[in-house]
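Private note to self, pasted from the team thread so I don't lose it. Backbone tokens:
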């Protein structure tokens, strides 16, 4: 399995969890490599007994990393390379000209920019046997922007180990805490539109406190937005966390205001922890959240609707509790490893599992 980096994030988490489960299959040997330097997820993989190789590319234009990748493939004799994200997809595609292996690529996003990512992906998709996406929205985007044949694209949703998430005590607490803690968990990236979430607090009528967990390039802009809108007493920037459970235990509502997502792994993590979710009605997210059933959706540019959804869940405990239970059942029905791992076995042409995993 080959990915751009192993820093804390949604796709590295997907790679980590999938690698750990594939490792348990008899006769299958799993290594993980990344283009970048050693990161926190690399440590977690090594602790799980999985060999990890960091190619330490100095930049996206570091062509020597391609040579290091080809050398690793030849040295380890891989039968299959499963690459994630455009930079790793490109390097793995180039590598097929110099080494023999089956290539499967993964496209994990629906965001339109940077456009050159899609230009690159379009040119390297032809080297892959299959393209895996986590949602129908991501599959549609991949087909349209990269001119990929429909039968080459495989939709395999992200999965969560429900047993690894203890229920957050806050959403069911009686009386509800004041101010009510709401949270964002993820990379601080412009696509997440966190300044818009900060501004929407001006329209929220219920007393709430926004907890932002994560790091990224937009931290300074978010800090400036907090000051600009005069909401300093109502927002806390916590920085990066190692496990989503650390943050979910501190909030009673998760908000994901992204402009685009390939899936939104944090959504099903919150549902597994029985934390209700509010998100934007955009591709990727709408494949996971069913409005009024397992979460609430608001229009992308409708901050009043976003604020109204937050108010609805904070003020109405009966509705909140019903949404929590339906969301939890939704995750168990659609996004557990018992359901998702067989899809990967079929993709990798492995024999069916003799019995479902306990996870």
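Design output:
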């Amino acid at each position: 399995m080959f990915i751009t980096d192993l820093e804390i994030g949604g796709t590295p988490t997907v790679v980590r969890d999938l690698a750990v489960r594939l490792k348990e299959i008899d006769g299958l040997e799993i290594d993980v490599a990344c283009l970048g330097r050693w990161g926190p997820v690399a440590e977690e993989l090594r602790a799980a007994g999985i060999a990890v190789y960091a190619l330490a590319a100095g930049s996206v234009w570091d062509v020597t990393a391609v040579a290091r990748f080809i050398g690793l493939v030849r040295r380890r004799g891989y039968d299959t390379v499963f690459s994630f994200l455009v930079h790793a997809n490109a390097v793995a595609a180039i590598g097929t000209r110099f080494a023999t292996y089956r290539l499967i690529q993964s496209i994990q996003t629906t965001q339109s920019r940077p456009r050159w990512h899609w230009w690159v992906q379009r040119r390297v998709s032809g080297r892959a046997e299959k393209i895996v996406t986590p949602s129908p929205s991501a599959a549609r985007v991949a087909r349209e922007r990269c001119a990929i044949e429909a039968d080459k694209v495989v939709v395999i949703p992200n999965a969560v180990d429900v047993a690894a998430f203890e229920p957050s005590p806050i959403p069911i607490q009686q009386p509800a805490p004041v101010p009510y803690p709401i949270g964002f968990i993820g990379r601080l990236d412009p696509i997440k539109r966190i300044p818009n979430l900060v501004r929407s607090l001006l329209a929220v009528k219920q007393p709430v406190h926004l907890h932002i967990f994560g790091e990224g390039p937009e931290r300074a802009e978010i800090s400036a937005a907090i000051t600009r809108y005069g909401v300093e007493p109502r927002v806390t920037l916590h920085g990066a966390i190692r496990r989503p459970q650390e943050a979910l235990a501190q909030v009673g509502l998760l908000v994901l205001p992204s402009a685009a997502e390939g899936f939104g792994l944090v959504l099903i993590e919150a549902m597994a922890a029985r934390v209700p979710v509010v998100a934007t009605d955009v591709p990727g997210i709408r494949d996971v959240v069913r409005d009024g059933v397992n979460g609430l959706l608001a229009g992308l540019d409708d901050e009043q609707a976003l604020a109204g959804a937050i108010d609805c869940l904070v003020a109405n405990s009966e509705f909140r509790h019903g949404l929590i239970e339906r969301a939890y059942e939704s995750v168990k029905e659609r996004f557990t490893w018992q359901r998702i791992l067989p899809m990967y076995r079929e993709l990798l042409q492995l024999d069916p599992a003799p019995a479902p995993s306990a996870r």
